[in-house]
Amino acid sequence: xxVTRDEPIKTDDFDVIGTSPVxxxxxxxxxxxxxxxxxxxxxxxxxxxxxxxxxxxxxIRAIDTSKAEALPGVVAVITGADFPDPGEHxxxxxxxxxxSIINKSADIMARGxxxxxxxxxxxxxxxxxxxxxxALALIEVDYExxxxxxxxxxxxxxxxxxxxxxxxxxxxGAELDGETNVSEHSVAEEGDLAAGFAAADFIxxxxxxxxxxHQGYIEPMNGTAWWRGDGTLDIWGSSQGHFGxxxxxxxxxxxxxxxxxxxxxxxxxxxxxKTTSYLEPLAAVLSRKSAxxxxxxxxxxxxxxxxxxxxxxxEKVKLGVSNxxxxxxxxxxxxxEAGGFPGSVLGAGVITALSPYALENMRVDGYEVLVNKTHTxxxxxxxxxxxxxxxxxxxxxxxxxxxxDPTEFRLLNASQEGDLRVDGLPFPKMGTVETTRAxxxxxxxxxxxxxxxxxxxxxxxGMASGYWMNGGGMSSAQAIVNxxxxxxxxxxxxxxxGTRTSIAMQLAETLGIDVLDVIPVVxxxxxxxxxxxxxxxxxxxxxxxxxxxxxxxxxxQMVAGLAEVWGVAADDIAYENxxxxxxxxxxxxxxxxxLLDDADILVTGKTSIAPTRPGPAIAVHAADVEVDIETGKxxxxxxxxxQDVGTAIYPPYVEGQIQGGAVQGIGWALNEEYWYDxxxxxxxxxxxxxxxxxxxxxxxxDAVIVEVPNPGHPYGVRGxxxxxxxxxxxxxxxxxxxxxxxxxxxxxMSPPRIIAALANNTKE
Amino acid sequence: MVAELVTGKTLVSTTINGEPVEFMCEPRESxxxxxxxxxxxxxxxxxxxxGNCGACSVILDGRLVNSCCVLGIEIAGSEVTTIEGLxxxxxxxxxxxxxxxxAALQCGIxxxxxxxxxxxxxxxxxxxxxxxIRYWLAGNLCRCTGYDKIVRAVQQAASGTxx
Lengths: 764, 163
What we know:
The structure holds 2 protein chains of 2 kinds. Helix content of chain A is 28%, strand content 24%. Chain A is of the alpha+beta class. Chain A has a domain at 26-34 and 472-609: 2-Layer Sandwich (Aldehyde Oxidoreductase, domain 4), CATH 3.30.365. The radius of gyration of chain A is 27 Å and the shape is globular. Chain A starts with 25 loop residues before the first helix and ends with a helix. The relative contact order of chain A is 0.13. In chain B, strands 2-1-5-3-4 form a 5-stranded mixed β-sheet, with helices on both faces. Chain B is an alpha+beta fold. The termini of chain B are far apart. The interface between A and B is large, with 64 and 61 residues.
């Protein structure tokens, strides 16, 4: 069966798609009944804690755990010596970038060296948490403290401390000689850069810096493991992909996937951060050693210090622009801090940097650099927000120089179907033009900004675009027709925010039944076929398509069954308006289910697919800001976020994704950053000091849904979740420039930076 | 060393969600630990354990508190309302209905805290302005929704109470 079509089945006249049912898991979540990883209590359960390096860079000369082991109540103590050598193959659990499994193993439990402050050195399981914490204090570690290297610039300088002496630079596929902190230099190029710049009437050349920022999911990382005596292992955790956790634990501990079962607990936010394992393998080894279930949860401080935020970056942008407003050439240099180990989201940063634009001459150079910070991971449209922030701000400078409306400039240069991306792939159908027009035509963009009421307040407006390629990947779904005509939908995607319903709606649409007659379930890894991680905005697209195809399978089987029951040819049975009919025989879906049940005919539709045409998402945002030039505080006055979502399956949750992504981007723009001191220690590891947006920090977010159906999905779906985080930093930087006449080129644009920028400006 | 940690448990008598409850608790244990680990009322969530996220919000003698910042022994003789105490046999509380109908949740981990905080707000101020809602909820972090649909759900719950 073909898994993609040239055009969607239909783009209007839906019965279920586009409606707003109450989500299936909603009652459990508003009553406190929903169970998340940390809610698990098992018989005889021990509690685990991790001893973490207090140094950003240190050789571990020796670890003495004997006193901890002797403490009454301690049931197991582990160090790197308890983990096998997993070999050197590449692994990828989520969208955080591929990495060598041996580095992943050394990241979750140090082997001979601490690469960042917070790096796990040992772990303890004990009868209760206070005992486990007391045991950690009894572990003696002999460190040889080394100077830390804390920025890409410092790490690339001659004579910089070397974090991994065996590391060699991957120079666009070839290995370079010599010790280095640069793990990768990749190049993507199209056209003739020199000719393009020569054809320009003017050049914009600028440089930008961003800090690491954290996904900030409200549920801290957790992992519980219970090793049975027969060598099989059960895991409960907080993950965007239970199959990914199964695979990673298998590779790290050298046990077959068939011996591991991972439970699909509810997950309290992930945003890309929960696509890899931290505690699950540790809990598993502690459980094996203690012959008990072991539960581990991170404190918020541990989450911030030792899980994977998005990389801090430095970006250089050079644009050649003609007086007619066309970009003639673009060259971007990206420097991404991978953290203490190689493997990062650099690749996506390279691909996305210039993708809102149709360019003939372009080049992106990406450098991945090791620094003594926690190993970075994926965060919503990983890599794109940093690289597109730089380009979108430079584009605003070009618009200013031209005196051109920035929406007009973007329409003039918009990437469209058939134009080449920087890696040489042609863009499929996507709504760059439609989404830009949605902002251009919005009441927001067309209503002049009113001046501020007070002399110390300055107002400005800005906009920016964002591109995200979206993902496909493997998905499985199974649809079981029950005797009462309801359908149990088993699907393999962890539900991080309403996908049980958005997938069930696609099944219900195809079956012609009420979505509340679908019972969506995400089973454990033993109970459904493989399904990839909930990431890359792939779930409503790929698992939705699997459910749609499973529904078609159900209808075929029901027709075949009814042909038997009615004694007619299957070809003579039509299914229209939720009714099967052949001659004088007719049955509604529910009646047909009962007829088949009476005849002992069971119907289970099923599909496993790997669709490859997810269709990119384009987001275009407009922001009005008010800058207090006395305090440096920036208040968002009005915010409009337009996005091409293909087809909005479940509109309130499409809006929710757009609104939530925009507000994460606002936090990134204005307040969120990792503050490391000179010793490489994180100084703001609480949610008071790591300042995420609160309700009074933001206005209502006006989400504008644009629908350019994706020809690669039967209902035209494009992934929605990630793109909306991309435009806010540039849109807000451009608005702040409009307000105070100063370009801020470092994120976040926090009050101290605004005040400093204003002070510097006055001096000049 | 361990002997110093276990300094003896105290019997605490209190009222939780309208029912009399007794539990043993160590002086160091927070109300959140008692609720989650001793009483298995896991609807109150731990997001930070230092009063910054509001996921563990409960109502203690009519006052909204972070249960991670209250000691278990402090609630002797008090009345505590947790998320588990809002719905009845007749159905959901109007605030729960408003969050559900208004799509005011995504992952759901902060939702119990927001619902309890909203109940505490509307008990005090049945007709809050948008600004009052936003400032009242400043102690509750949500990372999924951007707050838009949460604020609208609170407005809906307020209008639904008819007060």
